[in-house]
Structure to design on (460 residues):
C-alpha cells in the first residue's frame, strides 16, 4: 500500500504525488488531466487497484533504482543546498587547517550584545581569514552572516582541530608501527605553572629517510620518574606501539630522567633492555660550554657585564633610543642591534657578544649620555659600573674570546639539531670542532689574536 489512511499528512501527499507523476511518465497513455489525488471513501480501494497496475510497478522500479532520497525527489533545491553546505564546510575546514598549520590562534575577542546579531566572536584570525576568502566567493560572505548552523562556533572549531590532530596521529602511528623507534622526552613548566611533557618519536622509513615527529604535550601531575614512565606507556598504548620496538631513549641529564637507580631511562630499560639511553647532545654541549666558561675568571666577569649591558639597553626604551641614535652615527650599516644574553642557554650567546663588540663605541657614548640624564642613584651606579668595565682591557678581551669560541659552539649546536643527523655523524662533527679548538691554542694563532685585540682597542 502507498498510504494506510485517507487522511494523509501534507508530506505523505507529496510522496504520493511524486509516485503518481512517475506512474504517469511511465504510462504514456495516461493523460495529465487524470492526475487527480484520490479522496473520499473509495480512495483506499483505488490505491489498491492502482498498486497492481503495470505503470505503478514501473514507477516503483524507477524509484528503487535511483540513488536520490525522498527529500531530493520532493524538493529539487535540496541537492543544491546540500552541495553548497558541503562547499562552505570545506572552506571552513581548510581555513582552520591553515591556521593550525601556522600555529596561529583561531579565536579573538568576544563581543556582548542583546541580540544574536550583535553578540559573538569578532576580530579573530579565523573570521578575518574567512572574510578575506569571501572577497572571491560572495556565497561565503552570506554564509558568515547566518545566525546559526554555519559551523563557526568555538565548539565546532575545537572539534575540527581534534579530528585533524587524530588523523595526523593515526598517520604517524601507522608509519611507525612495526618499525624501530627512539623516544625523545623533555618537560618544562608553562606560564600557567603546569608541568608539561613533550614526547617525540624518531624513526627511519623504508626509504631510509629519518623522521622526527612531535606526538604532543601532556600535563604531568608530578615530575617523578614513575609518573613520566606511566605517561609514556599510556601514549604508546594509545598509538598502538609496542615498547619492544623501542631501540633508544634521549633525555636531558636530570636525575628523574637519567638516574641510574630509578630514573626514567632505567625503568624503561627494565621493560626493554635494547632501548639504550643517550644523553641529549644539545644539553650535553650546553653543560660543557657552561662549565668551561664559568671556570675562566675573565670569561665569567665578561659574561656578567655583558648580561648587565643587554638589560640596561633592552629594558629601557629611553636608553635604547639613545643607543640607536649613536649606532646610526658611528657604527657601520650592517652592525646588528643589541641582542639579549640568554641566562640559561649557553650555546646561543655568540650573537649577544657580537652585538656588543660591533657596537662598542656606540655603547660607550650611550653610557655617557644616559648617566647625565638619570637622577636615580642606583641606576647611575649601574651605568657607571658598566662604563668602567668597558674601558678595561680584560672585558674586551673576554668579549672577543667568548665571541670566537661561542661562534663555533653555536655552529656545532645547530648542526647537532639537524633532523637527519646520525649518532656517528654527530660524533664526527664534535671531533672536528675539538680539533679546531686545539689548533687555536698554538703560539702563532694566539699572537695573531693578540694583535687583533690591540688594534680594535686602539679604535675604541
Amino acid at each position: 500500500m502507498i498510504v494506510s489512511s485517507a487522511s494523509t499528512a501534507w508530506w505523505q501527499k507529496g510522496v504520493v504525488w511524486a509516485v503518481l507523476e512517475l506512474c504517469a511518465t511511465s504510462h504514456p497513455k495516461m493523460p495529465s488531466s487524470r492526475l487527480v489525488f484520490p479522496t473520499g471513501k473509495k480512495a483506499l480501494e483505488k490505491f489498491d487497484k492502482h498498486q497492481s497496475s503495470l505503470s505503478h510497478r514501473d514507477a516503483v522500479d524507477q524509484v528503487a533504482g535511483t540513488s536520490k532520497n525522498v527529500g531530493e525527489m520532493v524538493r529539487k533545491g535540496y541537492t543544491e543546498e546540500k552541495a553548497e553546505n558541503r562547499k562552505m564546510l570545506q572552506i571552513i575546514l581548510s581555513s582552520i587547517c591553515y591556521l593550525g598549520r601556522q600555529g596561529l590562534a583561531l579565536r579573538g575577542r568576544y563581543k556582548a550584545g542583546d541580540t544574536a546579531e550583535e553578540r559573538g566572536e569578532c576580530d579573530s584570525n579565523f573570521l578575518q581569514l574567512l572574510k578575506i576568502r569571501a572577497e572571491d566567493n560572495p556565497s561565503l560572505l552570506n554564509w558568515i552572516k547566518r545566525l546559526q548552523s554555519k559551523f563557526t562556533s568555538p565548539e565546532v572549531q575545537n572539534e575540527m582541530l581534534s579530528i585533524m590532530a587524530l588523523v595526523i596521529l593515526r598517520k604517524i602511528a601507522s608509519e611507525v608501527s612495526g618499525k624501530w623507534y627512539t623516544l625523545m622526552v623533555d618537560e618544562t613548566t608553562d606560564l600557567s605553572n603546569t608541568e608539561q611533557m613533550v614526547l617525540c618519536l624518531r624513526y627511519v622509513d623504508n626509504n631510509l629517510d629519518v623522521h622526527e615527529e612531535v606526538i604532543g604535550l601532556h600535563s604531568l601531575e608530578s615530575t617523578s620518574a614513575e609518573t613520566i614512565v606511566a605517561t609514556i606507556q599510556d601514549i604508546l598504548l594509545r598509538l598502538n606501539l609496542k615498547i619492544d620496538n623501542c631501540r633508544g631513549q634521549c633525555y636531558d641529564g636530570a636525575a628523574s630522567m637519567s638516574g641510574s637507580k630509578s630514573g626514567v631511562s632505567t625503568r624503561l630499560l627494565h621493560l626493554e633492555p635494547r632501548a639504550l639511553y643517550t644523553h641529549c647532545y644539545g644539553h650535553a654541549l650546553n653543560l660543557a660550554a657552561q662549565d668551561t666558561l664559568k671556570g675562566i675568571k675573565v670569561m665569567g666577569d665578561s659574561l656578567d657585564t655583558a648580561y648587565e649591558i643587554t638589560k640596561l639597553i633592552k629594558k629601557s626604551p629611553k636608553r635604547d633610543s639613545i643607543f640607536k641614535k649613536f649606532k646610526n652615527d658611528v657604527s657601520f650599516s650592517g652592525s646588528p642591534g643589541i641582542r639579549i644574553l640568554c641566562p640559561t642557554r649557553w650555546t646561543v650567546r655568540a650573537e649577544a657578544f657580537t652585538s656588543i663588540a660591533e657596537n662598542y663605541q656606540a655603547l660607550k657614548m650611550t653610557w655617557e649620555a644616559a648617566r647625565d640624564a638619570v637622577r636615580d642613584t642606583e641606576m647611575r651606579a649601574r651605568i657607571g659600573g658598566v662604563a668602567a668595565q668597558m674601558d678595561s682591557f680584560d672585558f674586551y678581551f673576554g668579549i672577543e674570546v667568548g665571541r670566537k669560541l661561542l661562534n663555533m659552539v653555536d655552529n656545532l649546536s645547530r648542526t647537532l639539531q639537524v633532523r637527519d643527523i646520525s649518532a656517528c655523524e654527530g660524533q664526527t662533527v664534535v671531533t672536528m670542532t675539538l680539533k679546531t679548538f686545539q689548533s687555536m691554542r698554538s703560539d702563532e694563532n694566539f699572537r695573531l689574536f693578540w694583535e687583533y685585540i690591540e688594534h680594535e682597542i686602539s679604535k675604541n
